[in-house]
Amino acid sequence: MTADSDDDRSVQISCPLPVTQYANVLVAHGGGGRLMHDLLRKVFLPAFANDLLGQGHDATVFGVADATRLAFTTDSYVVRPLFFPGGDIGRLAVYGTVNDLAMAGARPLYLSAGFILEEGLAIESLWRIVQSMASAAALCGVQIVTGDTKVVDRGKGDGVFINTSGVGVVEHQLQIGPRSVREGDVVITNGDIGRHGIAILAVREGLEFETTIESDLMPLARQVLALLEAGIEVHCLRDMTRGGMASALNEIAESARVAVTVEERLIPCRDDVRAACEILGFDPLHVANEGRFLAFVPAAQADLALSVLAREMSDSVPAIVGRVTGSGEAGVVLKTILGPNRVLDMLSGEQLPRIC
Amino acid sequence: MTADSDDDRSVQISCPLPVTQYANVLVAHGGGGRLMHDLLRKVFLPAFANDLLGQGHDATVFGVADATRLAFTTDSYVVRPLFFPGGDIGRLAVYGTVNDLAMAGARPLYLSAGFILEEGLAIESLWRIVQSMASAAALCGVQIVTGDTKVVDRGKGDGVFINTSGVGVVEHQLQIGPRSVREGDVVITNGDIGRHGIAILAVREGLEFETTIESDLMPLARQVLALLEAGIEVHCLRDMTRGGMASALNEIAESARVAVTVEERLIPCRDDVRAACEILGFDPLHVANEGRFLAFVPAAQADLALSVLAREMSDSVPAIVGRVTGSGEAGVVLKTILGPNRVLDMLSGEQLPRIC
Predict the structure, then answer these.
(1) Helices A271-280 and A195-205 sit at what angle, rounded to 10 degrees?
(2) How far B11 CA sits from the closest chain A CA (Å)?
């Protein structure tokens, strides 16, 4: 695709047929022969075009002469349905991995994309997903530089699964991670919780609420880099995906061996999400998000961090939700609105499968 | 896992029960809660233990102060069956990605591992696959430093799919890739072709040959680094996976816009593989390999390259199979044993699905 690819993406809402000679993915599209190369040339390569991908080789080589530390991460995406209010599996696959790099305080640079296609998937669906990935990558300033496509027989997959791995550069000197968490740290969320999980569930189960709840899916690298550029001594970051805020807090508390106390009244959650959770018997603290993260920062910098994040958030307001109240022993306590404190644990199992 | 992990692997042929409280993967094992963390702690983390993975964060941070160029690659593995003569999906997922890094002339350093598990997969099967990945990684000198696990409902996957992405360091100044191929270059294979595809097919279809044909699956980084250390000016490398030697030759010929001529009589192929191909109506040139690659090298260094590769190959002999006979127009010609030259094309579609 040439320089006008951005225009193409914004204008065309359906696949310019015939993209390929077949309307659906065949097993042969994964066979390494002419059909696979046709799919690559007509669907993937035009959308993701860049010089590094254009090397056309088994691995992509890039320079790192200016870097001293890199971050590396991977995630597979199996969300159902493939298209949901506020996003799709392609956008999720780009933002999700960009966000994991951001959680290490890294500037995302390069992504890989590995597709596992189920025989019979509509080429048009694949095309839409790929276009969505391309525009998401452009928005994040990352390039998809290497990829792979496999096809599995009908009934052995579910439309499309996508793995993205990411490489980013760490441009600061901080050690961002659970080990840097200290007693007294303030815990901040960049916005309201629970939208992604409820949006997926609503569309999957055909639930209708008064308003359409859209996923909170968004890229987080800009927010994190803004915190770092503002001089915030970020101790730890964690996105609140599967398992929601409760899992993120518990993971960090256990890795850091600290006690964290969060206050229910401080945790932002939209009324429609809260109402949906009540109907469904869910706790918003366990519901997955795809554009929300926790930042552990020194108390003295909490207000500055809030104001930096507020500048980057258009549809939600960041909030201080708690503090690190002890060290040596791991645990998360929730000060409830109505009554006494209670231990906030991870769920044992699964609230809602195939959320990401 | 502690220092005796290698011993553990060689002695135990079955999962030390109870590894987890469940014999089979549940959807909840992918939910981000206690069950998922239990699976990580008991199956994945002990097998892959290293300091970088031990960071326990969304992305793994590593130093690159000494590097100027890195290589990055990805592959998803969907091979069926999961265990086959000469390997399994775990070993394949490590060697396959190590090999893609090697094809860029890179020294493989770090892998990611993304698992898509189907509900109902035996935990023992997963455990065996993970052990196999760990020993394969140790053999290649790479570390699995970041990972992800998703679970899909029964009937929406096929046991386990694995994505591995890899990062390696490029320690030489060569530009290894199709664009460096020149007229006069000699084309070398590091060994006999066709074993992997026939091994998979035989076990899948219950075919019995006089001998058990084992996959040629092997890591290729040592061979490539040995070529570079010997001062071979390697122009291009390509492993002969899906689509076999024919696809690899055509991909390079098309990217480099060169004509390549290979001689059938020079192409090593074991008699049992050749016989199996004749029975099945396959051309060995189209059959997938997982431990075989093509090297394009200057004619003056071909003999040295052969002798370097021969030192690294225990069960096969490298061979010169052809030459780059022209430039400007892409094409691959096969000088047949019996008769005239013929164009050697890629297959249109699929000879054998789910081979890797």
Answers:
(1) 50
(2) 32
